[in-house]
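Go through this:
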Amino acid sequence: MLRVARGILLRPSFSTASTSKPLKPPTLLLSEVFASVQGEGPFTGRPSVFTRLGVCNLSCAWCDTPYTWLFDRDRHRKVAARAGPHAQPRIYDKRTELTRTTTDHLFRDVRALAGEGIRAVVITGGEPLLQKKHLQAFVTRLIDDGFAIEFETNGTVSPEGLPRGVHLNVSPKLENSMQPVEQRIKLQVLKECLAWPNSVLKFVVGEHRDLDEVCGIVEQLDIPSHRVFLMPLGTVCICGSAVPLVEITGLSIESQSSF
């Protein structure tokens, strides 16, 4: 019913309190959370809580955490077509490998693992920035609680929206990952990442030619060498015989004076 009061048309109001749905707490797709020591980049040796998130937008042939993203036969077939005998040997079950958890629950787990002695958190994956929307408040809460935050990212997803105090370890994938260059190298995103004062590049190298590709990317981005870190591909190089990292960099110092 409409009522008129002093020439003003009044419409009845309806309360939505009883019909509105409660807001769902933000959640993340989690692979694992554990305490360890950072083994890569500028903070090597620092005790940290590692928060490994699920899902990735790349499919590196040599990935050491395929259990975060390799869940379907079609994707496995495509990786195998590129990598041949070096392809990931199995497909993982997403239902057993990943857990949907609230950021409140994860925050409590991180604090419990950190105890009194750890004051750093490494957020890795997979590709963690794919879940950036629900990470923003979570990361801010960790920073407010006194934690230093590192992100491990492949440099294909913009970091825009993250708190500026986080450190970015940006790892562009080289040809040795056996993926098309247009998928693995996003120069504009890399420039966004490197605009952060707390950011470095980290490359996985397995043989001499990898360093030529590294130098090309570094030159395009015009960044100083102290912001570039190299790490070995592992005990076996998928591109041929493994070459010790010290040998690769030693030869490079002689032939690549600009690096």
